């Protein structure tokens, strides 16, 4: 099973991917996470990508498609892939078809998380994660059960993404509307798109996604 989770920043792609990994043993391929790891490690790709990411713009198709290519090739053939934050342009959608075919895979579902933009700004500006294990939290919607302590690993160190501020978030949403949303009709024509109400609670969205996968 190979699926794309599509939706504007903050729609819940990362949260839902983590659930799918846990429930179904799939692998999350998040170009945003790969790029942030490259920035942290100060690799040539990371050095090139950092300023672009901080501005909320898109990194080149070539860079992200080669990250996906490398990561997919390293996966066992029978493990399902979740594409999270990729593809984001028409060129990347074409690249993904070629990369999947090369690996003997095909796309089963494109799941679009349908969300309200203003609510998303609040959602994104409140999110943070555990600096040790990466568990995801939100100031109001999903705080750790004991304040300042990660539920998963007990760490007391947390971090916020530098691009999770209102100005950059609005910019990223505009990029989604202009560059990413236009790839949907191509997938719709293939009959593989399902819309899910991304404003529902985390568990409800997860149930809706599972219903599509079965
Ligand atoms: P994300 O974590 O998916 O919100 O991605 C964070 C940032 O990484 C984006 O705002 C872009 O600058 C960059 N990025 C992630 N995925 C892609 C992609 N598929 N194409 C271009 N840029 C990307």
Give a written overview of the molecule.
It is a single chain. The mean pLDDT is 95. The strands form 2 sheets. The chain has a 5-stranded parallel sheet with strand order 2-3-1-4-8, with helices on both faces. Strands 6-5-7 form a 3-stranded antiparallel sheet. It has 214 residues and is of the alpha/beta class. The longest helix is centred in the C-terminal third of the chain and has 15 residues, at 166-180. Helices cover 47% and strands 15% of the residues. β5 and β6 form a beta hairpin. The site of adenosine monophosphate has 17 residues, from α2 and α3.
Explain the layout of strands and helices:
Blueprint: E1 2-6, H1 13-24, E2 27-30, H2 31-40, H3 44-54, H4 61-73, E3 81-84, H5 90-102, E4 109-114, H6 117-125, E5 127-130, E6 136-138, E7 158-159, H7 166-180, H8 184-189, E8 193-197, H9 202-213
Parallel strand pairs: 1-3, 1-4, 2-3, 4-8
Antiparallel strand pairs: 5-6, 5-7
Helix pairs in contact: 1-9, 2-3, 4-5, 6-7
Bound molecules: adenosine monophosphate (AMP).
How big a fraction of the residues is strand? 15-25%
Return the string of H and E elements.
EHEHHHEHEHEEEHHEH
Alpha-beta classification: alpha/beta
| Strand arrangement in the largest pleated sheet | 2-3-1-4-8
Q: How big is the Rg?
A: 17 Å
Provide the residue-averaged pLDDT: 95
Give a count of the beta strands, DSSP E runs of length 2 or more: 8
